[in-house]
């Protein structure tokens, strides 16, 4: 479990998201993760996995929960794939990522499933 309160944890989750989605993603991952317009010679799924694991790692570090980190990894990849396929807009993508962070906080607040444990 995060050593911080819920408000502080939310702030850290937002900060970690911005860090992971912008400077830690960079132009290469932003382009290479798109299976609909792949970068030649780069398996899109490896780039998507790398980007999503960065996000999941951030959530895991902030919350202290491996399970929330794993959930973030999977859901982040799904959301980004929808955006890459033009099924959702950039703003919808960012809104869904924000809603995920709120959902993780709700699970932590409810103490559901022992999220702080491995």
UniProtKB/TrEMBL annotation:
The lineage of its organism: Bacteria, Pseudomonadati, Pseudomonadota, Alphaproteobacteria, Rhodobacterales. Keywords: Membrane, Transmembrane, Transmembrane helix. The chain crosses the membrane at residues 44-75, 96-117. It comes from the Bacteria. It holds the Pfam family DUF3307. This is DUF3307 domain-containing protein.
């Amino acid at each position: 479990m995060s050593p911080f309160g819920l408000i502080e944890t939310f702030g850290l989750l937002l900060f970690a998201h911005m860090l992971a989605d912008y400077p830690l993603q960079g132009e290469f991952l932003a382009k290479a993760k798109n299976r609909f317009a792949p970068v030649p010679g780069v398996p899109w799924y490896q780039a998507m996995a790398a980007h999503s694991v960065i996000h999941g790692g951030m959530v895991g570090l902030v919350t202290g929960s491996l399970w929330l980190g794993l959930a973030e990894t999977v859901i982040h990849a799904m959301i980004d794939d929808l955006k890459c396929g033009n099924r959702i807009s950039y703003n919808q993508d960012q809104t869904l990522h924000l809603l995920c962070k709120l959902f993780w906080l709700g699970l932590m607040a409810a103490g559901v499933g022992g999220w702080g444990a491995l």
